[in-house]
Specification:
The chain is mostly beta strands and 117 residues long. It has one domain: Barwin-like endoglucanases. Helices cover 10% and strands 46% of the residues. It has an eight-stranded mixed sheet with strand order 2-6-3-5-4-7-1-8. A hairpin with a 5-residue loop joins β4 and β5 (54-62). The longest helix has 6 residues, at 30-35.
Length: 117
């Protein structure tokens, strides 16, 4: 049996920009991507803690160290700069593998989106 489980999670990052006039996606600081094993083009789910919206899109690599979390295109209508979101990706795996799999999770500072070490 193959099941879907959480692979990566950025827990509570702050939206820095919402750019309606851009091709759809989410731009994420490359440091944050590396911290939780995300790659450019990967599908992610974004959960907005401020309004309950849930969005699926793909990642564009942002400038390393910038703290950028920018929703682009139509997704920009679902957030406001300053909203706190959770970003997750999922993986399909065999049930037995999933039982022992440990996802990559980071809890950045919500004021700066910098990693707390």
């Amino acid at each position: 049996m193959i099941i879907e489980v959480v692979k990566s999670k950025l827990h509570r990052v702050t939206v820095t920009e919402a750019n309606l006039n851009y091709i759809g996606s989410i731009t994420i600081d490359e440091d944050l991507m590396d911290a939780v094993n995300l790659i450019e083009g990967e599908k992610v789910q974004i959960v907005n803690n401020n309004n309950g919206e849930r969005i699926e899109t793909y990642i564009i690599k942002g400038t390393r160290g910038s703290g950028a979390i920018c929703l682009n295109g139509a997704a920009a209508r679902k957030v406001q700069p300053g909203d706190v979101v959770i970003i997750m990706s999922y993986a399909h795996m065999d049930f037995e593998e999933a039982r022992t799999f440990k996802p990559w999770v980071a809890f950045p500072d919500t004021k700066t989106n910098k990693l707390i070490r």
